[in-house]
Write a structure and sequence with these properties.
This protein is mainly α and 501 residues long. It has three domains: 186 residues, MFS general substrate transporter like domains (Growth Hormone, Chain: A); 49 residues; 238 residues, Growth Hormone, Chain: A. The chain has 19 helices and no strands. Helix 1 runs antiparallel to helix 8 and helix 11 runs antiparallel to helix 15.
Length: 501
């Protein structure tokens, strides 16, 4: 039952209305989830049209970063002003950003509009989950959570293929606009069928913590990704500013009554392992998926459809491994299931790190598939173990902490691998950065001489090789973290519900 002090639905809502609200929440969740995967197969074409290859990792990074930072703020606002109002605001920002992205005339403009999208997306998934928590009793939530998980799996499968199809037959702006009718339908259904009576709870919104986190992570990512193009005093100043922001954030979070990051939860070994493991696994996933279609199209010379199919292999195996990982941890332990997932991440990322253009899409697809198995096992084990390690009253905060680390890990993975890519291109051939834009364009590639095309293909392949070495390092760290999960702990043999000590 909903908390007596939280926004809730009147009993007169009825099963019919409740089902329609469920459908709206699933649609909204799909809309936000697919945005992280559909763009991956479109980015080579976008770079070919807008230029700015050195900036393109920011298209992923800024979306994930603004989404992560805004999630805790929206959670507090939903308790203060109700789920409906916050859902409408977030979805409105997301759709506005989506429309503007399609009209972007430069890579910098696209990055700004993606930030708007991310700020909106920070409301959609957690508020949708909160609405469903209000609607359904605890005995019904397992089934509902299965539906939500299937939406993430479907979005991961559909996203790459849909993006490739739209690029092949229409144009890249449609990749951003395809979500608009889905979002409008979700808003209309929530407005029509969701009824809530807001009984306010007093909350302190951690605006300062959110701002410090955004400054700290954002400035350090700028230093990381754009370090080669910054003057040394500017670079050192950015690193110093980011470090100071993090120091102030830690001090602030220890003092505030309702911190954005409840640090006391991290005293629990299970929560620390689950959150950090989720973060590094997210870094592997984003470090791979953000750049794999670029390798397939730029280094292998294949079509966007081929890039989508290669990335789709990860999505399919991820969905299947989520169920298999759940069964494995039921029969064995969290640690064994997490280590199986971490090992698959290492093997899959290692396959991509040693890949050459001559290996072809089959090799890339196999590496992608193995990484998907690793992600399916790791993501399931980490979230289930965290939720089971705390009492009910702390479960929301623990889940949010793990989800937050996942998004932060994804943004760091995209930024760090992008920085390695840019640095490698600059080291191999500083003049190649602008020429890579033409390599990713079918017409521009055809106009190149065989010698020029072979040289640029080699530059891209070698540079992405270095990026995948970093992704492999992230995978190794994930495996090491998984090995620190307490032994013999499983859903069948769980520690008692007690606050972290």
């Amino acid at each position: 039952m909903p908390d007596a002090l939280s926004p809730r639905l009147p009993h007169a809502t009825g099963d019919g209305r409740r089902t329609l609200v469920l459908a709206a929440c699933l649609m909204a969740t799909f809309m936000a989830a697919v945005e992280s995967t559909i763009i991956a197969t479109a980015i080579p074409t976008i770079v070919a049209d807008l230029g700015g290859f050195a900036l393109f990792s920011w298209v992923f990074t800024i979306y994930l970063l603004t989404q992560a930072v805004s999630i805790p703020v929206y959670g507090r606002l939903a308790d203060l002003y109700g789920r409906r109002r916050v859902f409408f605001i977030g979805t409105g920002l997301f759709l506005t950003g989506s429309i503007l992205c399609g009209f972007a005339s430069s890579m910098l403009a696209l990055i700004v509009f993606r930030a708007v999208q991310g700020v909106g997306a920070g409301a959609i998934q957690p508020i949708s989950a909160t609405i469903l928590g209000d609607l359904y009793a605890p005995t019904e939530r397992a089934k509902i959570q299965g539906l939500v998980s299937s939406v993430f799996g479907i979005s991961a499968v559909v996203g790459p293929s849909l993006g490739a199809f739209l690029i092949e037959h229409l144009s890249w702006p449609v990749v951003f606009w395809v979500n608009v009718p889905i979002g409008l339908a979700a808003v209309a259904m929530i407005a029509t069928f969701l009824r809530e009576t807001v009984q306010h709870r007093r909350h302190q919104i951690d605006w300062i913590g959110s701002l410090l986190l955004l400054i700290g992570v954002g400035v350090l990512m700028i230093a990381l990704v754009q370090g080669l193009s910054l003057e040394r005093p500017v670079l050192l100043g950015a690193v110093l500013l980011g470090g100071c922001a993090f120091a102030l954030l830690l001090r602030h979070e220890r003092r505030i009554a309702e911190p954005m990051l409840p640090l006391e939860l991290w005293r629990s070994r299970v929560i620390a392992v689950g959150s950090l493991g989720n973060g590094f696994a997210g870094a592997v996933m984003m470090g791979v998926s953000a750049f794999l279609p670029t390798y397939v199209q730029g280094a292998m010379g294949r079509s966007p459809v081929a890039g989508g199919l290669v990335l789709g292999a990860m999505s399919v195996s991820w969905a299947a491994a989520s169920f298999a990982g759940g069964r494995l941890m039921m029969r064995t332990s969290y640690r064994l299931a997490a280590m199986v997932g971490g090992s698959c991440l290492v093997i899959g990322a290692g396959m991509l790190a040693v890949m050459t253009p001559a290996n072809g899409p089959l090799w890339a697809g196999t590496g992608s598939l193995v990484i998907g198995i690793g992600m399916g096992c790791c993501s399931t084990v980490f979230i289930v173990s965290v939720q089971a390690s705390v009492p009910w009253r702390q479960r929301g905060a623990a889940t949010s902490s793990t989800m937050f680390m996942r998004f932060i890990g994804q943004s760091i993975g995209a930024a760090a691998c992008g920085a390695v890519l840019n640095a490698s291109i600059a080291a191999i051939d500083p003049s190649a950065s602008n020429a890579v834009d033409r390599l990713l364009d079918v017409t521009g590639r055809a106009l190149m001489t065989a010698t020029e095309r072979a040289h640029l293909t080699d530059v891209v392949a070698r540079s992405l090789h270095h990026a995948y070495l970093l992704a492999t390092l992230f995978a190794v760290v994930t495996l090491l973290i998984a090995s620190r999960m307490p032994p013999r702990l499983s859903p069948q043999h769980q520690v008692p519900d007690a606050p972290p000590r």
